[in-house]
Amino acid sequence: MSPAASRRRARSACAAIVLVACPVAAHGQDAPTTAGAPQALPDNTLDPHSPMAAMPDLGVDWPDLAKPDAPLGMLPPDETSPGAPTLFLPPPTLPDAAAKPASKPATSKTTETTGDRRYVLSIEGLGDVAAEGLVERFDALSSLHQGEGAVANVAQIDRRAREDADLLRELLRAYGYYDAEVDARVGGTAGPTLSGQPRLAVTLSVTAGPSYRFRSVALPGLAAAGRDEVALAHAFGVKTGDPVNADKVTGGIEALKLALGQHGYAFATVAEPDITVDHDTHEATLSLAVEPGKVMRFGAYRLSGKRVFGMRHLMRISRMKPGDRYDATRLDDLRRALIQTGLVSVVQLTPVRTADPEVVDVDARLEPAPPRTIAGTLGYGTGEGASIEISWQHRNLLPPEGAVTFRGLLGTQEQLLSAQLRRGNFRDRDQVLTGQVAIDHQNRPAYDAKTLTLAAGMERQTNIIWQKKWTWSYGGELIGSDERDVIAATGQPRRRTYFITAAPLSLAYDGTDDLLNPSTGWRLSAHVSPEVSLQGSPFTYVRIQLDGSAYQPVGDHLVFAGRLRFGSIQGASADRIAPTRRFYSGGGGSVRGFGYQKIGPRDIDNDPVGGASLAEFGLEARIRFGNFGLVPFFDGGNLYEQSLPRFTGFRYGTGLGFRYYTSFGPVRVDVGTPINPLPGDSRVAVYVSLGQAF
User: Fold this and answer.
1) Rounded CA gap, 691 and 694, in Å?
2) Which domain holds residue 422?
3) 585 secondary structure, DSSP code
């Protein structure tokens, strides 16, 4: 191999991947020493202010750069060759073994020289580049993209073009295109005119060159992991033949560290990767040294910092028990569970060596979060009216995790005062003990009720962090209610007092991808409540409700969603059951387009009276663009006096919803209209809430 070709061989890592922050170290091949080449340079060679050493072999002296009249690049004519300029030679440089072959500096060909213009950017030559995410990363960092649409002078545009050419070249190198070149052109017109002035065309022309690939990938030291070696190598993911991609190398290192922790190697170390790039063969080698250490067993937690929970409660939340194989993912699970309680703001979990070389303890340092919250909400729904709600909560008033919430609701049709207890992780992980006392006054078109409720229960909770597939609840309720309604046939007012004992049960499956904004999967839930009513002579009945929904994405911006609901009361007629315990239909969570509880049997005054069974459906097309969305919908359903739905006489509503997507879920505004209204139904209904309709 010639000396020039040999000098082209180099080892490079993050120096060739400047914008990816890859912790890659590299070394290059030493350039061979040629005959006559100096073996060492004077000490003052590295001092830019020292006199330059003479080079008698050239027959000329170095120019005196202190003289202002010394031209750069040329020496005065040689006296022995009158009129012939002598070439100015730069001083020799130290060999840089790690340097890659010099790439052409970014240049910009500009045909426009003056004026303030708007411009349009286009990129040519990326069609054959297999670099997923490259365009998105370039767009996020591009100076041209940040200023596109604003007026700039041509000099500014040219400078941005050169910066972006350098940026795109380095991104291509990060994806393994080490020979990539990018040229910028500024000039001409492109796109529609703005204010009568054509926009300036800015083009980045890419010559990507070949994609470099790994000739070999080695993980020296990993064999010490024994039977875990194959799984750990698989977790790293980078293998022989893969493109030299900095992101994949960095991601592979993080995945390998995670896998080591999952397999019990609490104190494993992973060295910096050593990558050698051969620019002649367009290949590279990768070596990543690993020291797994021993597989460790978990011993105990050591509490430090401010005390938030006792050891017993911490062990209840943890999924890793003494004697278990150490698993770093279970520590991460514990960290998120502690944050989810709302009582901890900072969690640090650190493995600590013990006297037993195969046992590891974990130091748990917790910083408490503010325990109190005051919240307020405003709401409105056609038929439900306006409401304002204020609540005060102390999340650890009854430790551990005994959250007490006092809530007040003031609305045009409902007023409520309640106190609720929720004790999280009660006796088991993710199990919640609930208790509530509430005084409620509801003034609905169907009834006027003053109700006192005492309730307690147990539930397996789901939340945004741990959205569980299966959830359940059970409990008991004691209800005393003074209710006024009318006899449906005659319209005669009546007042009855009910004492009700109920034992509600629920079981639900959730196979969707998001709790508040699902886009794929399905849900199914069943609610059963055996009840005993002491109004008049005691009698029993059972309330049953089934709900199902499904979600199907179409492309990146459209989701079709549908739901079904069936309800039935077995064992008593609708008229005998308390009005507040009957089924109702219509409203924002039911058939949109109709007012709240407006669907179903009515009395002679055209007010709803409720029913013993119901059937409903809903269809939506959720169209999203950025943080906003449109949702055309079509709903239908009906309510029946019989204990089983008859699926006849459906009322249909349609309309358009608007969504604003936030980090905690979508804000929903739906505007609907009934397709087949009954006399007295409003032509427009509006619903505002948090989360999707279903």
Assistant:
1) 8
2) 372-690
3) B
Residue 60 DSSP label = B
Residue 422 CB-density burial (10 A; 0-12 exposed, 13-18 middle, 19+ buried): buried
Strands 274-278 and 119-124, by their bridges, are: unpaired
Residue type, position 258, single letter: L
Q: How far apart are CA 383 and CA 393, in angstroms?
A: 30
Backbone angles phi, psi at 575, to 5 degrees: -70, -30
pLDDT in tens, 252-270: 999 999 999 999 999 999 9
- Distance (Å) of CA 600 to CA 446, 449, 593: 11, 20, 14
Does residue 57 surpass a pLDDT of 90?
Answer: no
SS3 82: coil
Query: Residues 6 or more apart from 292 whose CB is under 8 A from it?
Result: 221, 222, 224, 225, 228, 232, 260, 265, 268
Q: Model confidence over 486-509: pLDDT tens digits? A: 988 888 899 999 999 999 999 999
Domain boundary among 179, 207, 235: 207
Show which of 368, 385, 404 is a domain's final residue. Answer: 368
Q: Which among 166, 170, 196 is positioned nearest to 184, based on CA atoms?
A: 166
Which band of pLDDT confidence, cut at 50, 70 and 90, is reported for residue 385? confident
Q: Is the same domain home to 384 and 452?
A: yes
For residues 667 and 377, give the distance between their C-alpha atoms in angstroms, rounded to a whole number.
13
Segment 661-689 shows an average pLDDT of: 89
The structural domain count of the chain equals: 3
- Compute the distance between CA of residue 575 and CA of residue 641 in angstroms, rounded to an integer: 9
Cβ within 8 Å of residue 65, ≥6 positions away: none
Residue 218, strand partner residues: 287
Distance CA 112, CA 127 (A): 28
Residue 558: closest CA among 522, 520, 515: 520
Residue 180 has pLDDT above 70, yes or no: yes
